[in-house]
Design goal:
By secondary structure, this protein is mostly beta strands. Helix content is about 10%, strand content about 40%. It is built from one helix and eight strands; from the N terminus they run E-E-E-E-E-E-E-E-H. The strands form two sheets. The chain has a four-stranded antiparallel sheet, with no helix packed on it. A four-stranded antiparallel sheet has the order 5-6-7-8, covered by helices on one side. Strand 3 and strand 4 form a beta hairpin. The model has no long low-confidence stretch (mean pLDDT about 80).
Length: about 140
């Protein structure tokens, strides 16, 4: 929205906008695709990450903008009102999804990034997986 004129400009038809850390891109979800918008040029790119059941609220940028966390529904739903989800990351250079092996209940799950050197990421992911395994089921 232009503050002076109160004019609204629509950049994309998608959900859950997330600004990149540098402020030069906006990531959104459109069904099972990720849409990246450049707010200056108003151009958008749509990227398929090869998974289905993407949950918009799980989309978050890594501190360096190289990855997006992503949550999606698993194909093995329990048949009741609970939603089983998978937590993973998407490389914004290749648009490949990497499953972190973390299974959760509910559509509000997301990954909060911390600013760690890349070499520590796999170690942190293993710690999180173990913590989730040891959490009592509800």
């Amino acid at each position: 929205m232009d503050v002076a004129s109160h004019q609204t400009t629509y950049l994309a038809r998608a959900d859950a906008p997330r600004w990149s850390p540098a402020g030069d891109r906006i990531a959104l979800t459109d069904g099972d695709d990720i849409v990246i918008v450049d707010p200056r040029t108003k151009r958008s790119e749509t990227h398929s990450v090869g998974i289905s059941g993407v949950i918009a609220t799980g989309l978050e940028w890594s501190p360096d903008g190289a990855f997006l966390s992503l949550v999606h529904r698993t194909p093995d739903q329990p048949g009741d009102s609970r939603v089983r989800t998978v937590l993973g990351i998407v490389d914004t250079g290749t648009w490949k999804f990497r499953d972190l092996g973390i299974r959760l209940w509910g559509v509000t799950a997301s990954l909060r990034w911390v600013n760690l050197p890349p070499r520590n990421f796999d170690q942190l992911a293993r710690v999180l997986v173990e913590a989730c395994k040891n959490e009592p089921s509800r």
